[in-house]
Amino acid sequence: MNSYSALSNWFEYLNRDCDYSSWSQYLIERLRAFNVGRKGVDIGCGNGYFTRALYRAGYAVTGIDISPQMLNVAKQKSAEEGVPCEFLLGDITKLKLTGHVDFAVAINDCLNYVPPAKLKAAFSRVCACLNRGGVFHFDISSQNKIKNVIADNMFGEDGEDISYMWFNTPQPDGVTMDLTFFVRGADGRYDRFDETHRQYAHGEDDVISALKDAGFSSVCTQGHLGTDDKTMRINFTAVK
Hints:
The chain is of the alpha/beta class. The protein has seven helices and eleven strands. It has two domains: 7-142 and 202-239, Rossmann fold (3-Layer(aba) Sandwich); 145-199, N-terminal domain of TfIIb (Single Sheet). Helix 2 (20-33) crosses helix 3 (49-56) and helix 5 crosses helix 7 (204-213). The longest helix is centred in the first third of the chain and has 14 residues, at 20-33.
């Protein structure tokens, strides 16, 4: 089953402990710190939480994701909240826009789904879409998190409407994630859904090197929400 097909309707609920409100505020402050223009793209937008947050902050943002199911939920949530964002189906490794933008963001592990051999190509695609001086801000789960926290571990949750089991098999370059969901229907019965995800563990120096080879002139990094702690998550801000 395709990644994020069954997960799409429950993604924000299952990530409720991520404090998306603080995360989106950090993202907005980061863009303001670089004085970027108002037009941008949210790559790997998922359900569109950050796309909507950026729109409310005054940015003209288009959400892009590889999952049709995630985009359907993003469009629905956007309509319910009265936020007229555009959402498009797309892959960062094949990204092509009709015009240039002032910034691009890719939040919450989007780049962990890109194999190491395709990082430079993905970054080159993003760079080609940016105006000169444009900014690309994204994050990754660190090598430490992928290899020492997630890999070879099992996670789960038993809820009233949804329960899941998440098994993680180590790979030389990352981890394979096998997820099983049990979702309660209107009649009280539970349906089972299975998904497999593949994430890659990228080193900070390797990401910076790929960004510069792709045409970005400067790169700076921070930990989650701007802290100095990069043990679990690393933020990258690159300027064309």
